[in-house]
Description:
Elements: E1 5-10, H1 17-28, E2 32-34, H2 35-45, H3 48-59, H4 65-76, H5 79-84, E3 85-89, H6 95-105, E4 112-117, H7 120-129, E5 130-133, E6 139-141, E7 159-160, H8 167-181, H9 183-190, E8 194-198, H10 203-220
Parallel strand pairs: 1-3, 1-4, 2-3, 4-8
Antiparallel strand pairs: 5-6, 5-7
Helix pairs in contact: 1-10, 2-3, 4-6
Bound molecules: adenosine monophosphate (AMP).
Adenosine monophosphate is lined by residues 13, 35-36, 39, 56-57, 60-63, 68, 90-91, 93, 97, 164, 173.
Amino acid sequence: xxxxxxxxxxxxxxxxxxxxxxxxxxxxxxxxxxxxxxxxxxxxxxxxxxxxxxxxxxxxxxxxxxxxxxxxxxxxxxxxxxxxxxxxxxxxxxxxxxxxxxxxxxxxxxxxxxxxxxxxxxxxxxxxxxxxxxxxxxxxxxxxxxxxxxxxxxxxxxxxxxxxxxxxxxxxxxxxxxxxxxxxxxxxxxxxxxxxxxxxxxxxxxxxxxxxxxxxxxxxxxxxxx
Length: 226
Ligand code: AMP
């Protein structure tokens, strides 16, 4: 049986987190828990949470830690997560969220946080070309479009540019990443829970690098990740 995993994936916007998290969730047969996807679904459905979140998301601002951690804690309590684990995408984004996540997960902590490293000039290029499905969140780009007329290959939804992939919102998100999220790398490193991989090159190559660091860690620890 494929062992589960409890993973957090870190990286700048455009580092390929979404794509790699989907791949890892298939590889380890665990749910992909993306705070961005959950929030975009809430916006689309017009729920109270979505109405509260939309404006800040469009401007590239971070939502409050309380709101995010309540949403994440609720998802992590569900039976699929409890049975096999998770790949957490887009959270934590602040040290406060990471501390609260450890509390939510207690007594079984995270296995590993993986940082996908991509130079800023490259993420800017990727973000400008990025297109996503409004229904399932599948990722495409101008150079790798869906097969038929911007219709999602996975679910048939419309494939568009994200509202927060404007030049202004992108620069705000990258600024917040440096200020609020990058310190998490040291935070996880100091807890011996961090591995870094290069996010450049083909998506398949990046997935192989990520699986390799996870499996090497499992081997070193006699089948366990922590
Ligand atoms: P993402 O798809 O992960 O880039 O998230 C899109 C937007 O959702 C972000 O720019 C934030 O406005 C909001 N968001 C998602 N996750 C978080 C989080 N962990 N903390 C605060 N805001 C978040």
